[in-house]
């Protein structure tokens, strides 16, 4: 755990990446697995993870992300795209996956599936979209922690126009919405923000114990 805390102190939202340094296939596989294994409500994972490798696409996305250099300079660009609506088929597919993975008859899972449907399908569409978007933040947390363990720099981003990114990638047609962006790679030696002390609330200010 001491190493984990050390790595959390090491990481920061990288402002300038070294475009010449690339993440290895092995490390990328580890990062993808960290995202895949992330927790989510009900275990439903109502999102897609899009890895944008095409440099032309990344150049198109950059203006939609306020012109931030990380979009084109980082080794990898990750987009967390939440499903805009929770559909009955989504839940049925999840129940089927549980059945196959755990060797449990689908019939034995009907109650759980019906429970999820009663809670999620009855939500207003806007509320569903907010809920699925929240799930992407859980996955992002896993990615950031895994990256820090591998000494890979990461920048989580909310500074972008979701509508523009959706249009560039055609996500609307897939029932998806850009919720979060994360850039991954290695800090440039000229990024002076890496030397800044981490600013956080004190333990006394942050925690309340009843």
| Strand segment tally | 4
Distance between the termini: 26 Å
Q: Which residues form runs of ≥5 with pLDDT under 50?
A: none
Q: Give the biggest sheet.
A: 4 strands, antiparallel
What form results from the Cα inertia axes?
A: globular
Binned strand content: 5-15%
Question: Any overview of this molecule?
Answer:
With 210 residues, the protein is an alpha+beta fold. The protein contains nine helices and four strands, in the order ααβααβαααβαβα. α2 (25-36) crosses α7, α3 (55-64) runs antiparallel to α8 (162-169) and α5 packs antiparallel against α6 (110-120). The two termini are 26 Å apart. The mean pLDDT is 97.
Secondary structure layout plus pairing:
Blueprint: H1 2-10, H2 25-36, E1 47-52, H3 55-64, H4 70-73, E2 76-83, H5 88-102, H6 110-120, H7 125-149, E3 153-157, H8 162-169, E4 176-185, H9 203-206
Antiparallel strand pairs: 1-2, 2-4, 3-4
Helix pairs in contact: 2-7, 3-8, 5-6
List keywords for this structure.
210 residues, alpha+beta, four-stranded antiparallel beta sheet, 9 helices, 4 strands
Quick rundown:
The chain is of the alpha+beta class and 210 residues long. The chain contains nine helices and four strands; from the N terminus they run H-H-E-H-H-E-H-H-H-E-H-E-H.
């Amino acid at each position: 755990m001491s190493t984990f805390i050390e790595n959390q102190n090491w990481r920061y939202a990288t402002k300038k990446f070294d475009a010449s340094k690339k993440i290895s296939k092995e490390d990328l596989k580890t990062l993808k697995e960290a995202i895949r294994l992330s927790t989510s409500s009900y275990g439903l994972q109502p999102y897609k993870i899009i890895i944008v490798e095409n440099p032309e696409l990344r150049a198109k996305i950059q203006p939609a992300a306020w012109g931030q250099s990380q979009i084109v300079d980082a080794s990898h660009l990750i987009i967390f795209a939440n499903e805009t609506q929770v559909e009955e088929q989504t839940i049925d597919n999840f129940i089927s996956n549980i059945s196959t993975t755990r060797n449990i008859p689908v019939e034995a899972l009907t109650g759980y599936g019906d429970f999820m449907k009663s809670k999620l399908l009855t939500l207003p569409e806007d509320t569903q979209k907010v809920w699925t978007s929240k799930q992407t933040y859980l996955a992002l947390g896993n990615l950031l922690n895994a990256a820090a363990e591998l000494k890979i720099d990461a920048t989580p981003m909310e500074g972008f126009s979701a509508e523009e990114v959706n249009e560039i990638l055609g996500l609307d047609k897939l029932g998806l919405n850009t919720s979060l962006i994360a850039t991954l790679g290695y800090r440039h030696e000229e990024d002076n923000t890496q030397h800044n002390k981490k600013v956080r609330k004190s333990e006394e200010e942050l925690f309340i114990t009843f």
